[in-house]
Design brief:
32% strand; 4 helices; alpha/beta
Length: 174
Amino acid sequence: GAQASSTITRGASLTRGRCSMAEPRVGECAIFVDGACYPNPGTMIVAAVQVRVTENDFERVQQASDVLGPGTNNRAEFEAVRFGLGFVQPKSVALYTDCEHITRALAGDITLSAPELAEFIEGFRTAMEQRGFSINLLPSRANLAHPLLQREIRKLREAQVPSFLKKQGREVPS
């Protein structure tokens, strides 16, 4: 097969519709993923957006986000990949993320010390070789999942403020 590093794409910026991003190919199943913690370490939040790439635009197929258990930002980025892959089981998937650490780990350029991710990473690499999966790096501003993730972080932050104020013995605004 091809060398692992050749599966990372740093695409030139392109405008399609209202989005500027690394260029996906027409007809591919593109899934944009993002993950974070609030705070870090803290509660993991993941988001994914699946689009169908047409000649002139992106057609949003589905999107979702979820709040997971405790973890770190790095772990949340991996969980976002797993979450996004749960959307579909096609022969070929192009994953887009704004996390270079994830692209390098999944492509085999770096080895991570987290043993619980080893099986997932190995499975993803096998899928890259056998089923045409790719992992693509793009800026946060071009990641279609990033606004969805930010919305979930805001909701989590707003939900935590009243309990923090109560612990401090302060009045909770209504």
